[in-house]
Amino acid sequence: MSLINIIDFPVLGDGRGALVALEANHHIPFEIKRVYYIYGTAQGLARGFHAHKELKQVAICLKGSCRFVMDDGKGKQEVILASPDKGLLIDAMQWHEMYDFSENCVLMVLASDIYDEDDYIRDYQNFLQEIKKC
Ligand code: TYD
After folding, report:
1. Contact of 87 with 6, CB cutoff 8 Å
2. In this predicted structure, what is the pLDDT of residue 134?
3. For a pocket test of ligand 1, which of 37, 95, 115, 123 has the largest count of ligand atoms closer than 8 A to its C-beta?
4. Ligand 1 center to residue 12 CA distance, Å?
5. 41-87 tens-digit pLDDT
6. Would the pTM count as exceeding 0.85?
7. What residue owns the CA closest to ligand 1's atom 5?
8. Residue range(s) defining the domain that contains residue 117
């Protein structure tokens, strides 16, 4: 099973440029309850290093590029996000790390729920224990 689930968004382009429209439960496979974005990431830094118990997310690199490592406790796979018409599905119980942010990177994330620290698993050993129960 691939850990990298990329959603290709339709681009409504014409002579004026490109337009991408994202609808909940259609292009995005859940009800969107939160949007956040990451930018100005210091060079050489990595972020993420957690999994979510329930939350589903789609990450879209609107500008620039960054790399994701996706990990289900059995294996890891990497992907580069570098296009605003592609979304990476981050499912529940997928450990993820992001790094190699380009200087101009703007990474937008659509999430299925509001922020809840109790939904985070931030300890990798704890993640491996929890994944065995799934
Ligand atoms: P964190 O999830 O650690 O960021 P990353 O996964 O990119 O490393 O979040 C950084 C901080 O921002 C942390 O204190 C929690 C807070 N935060 C919110 O308050 N709301 C949010 O929607 C998110 C994603 C983070």
Report:
1. yes
2. 82
3. 115
4. 32
5. 999 999 999 999 999 999 999 999 999 999 999 999 999 999 999 99
6. yes
7. 48
8. 6-133
Question: What's the CATH number where 13 sits?
Answer: 2.60.120.10
Other CB atoms within a 10 A radius of the CB of residue 132 amount to 8
Which is nearest to 112 in space by CA: 7, 9, 34, 21? 34
Q: Confirm whether 126 is domain-assigned.
A: yes
Q: Is 26 tagged catalytic?
A: no
Domain-embedded: residue 1: no
Catalytic site residue from 26, 27, 50, 96: 50
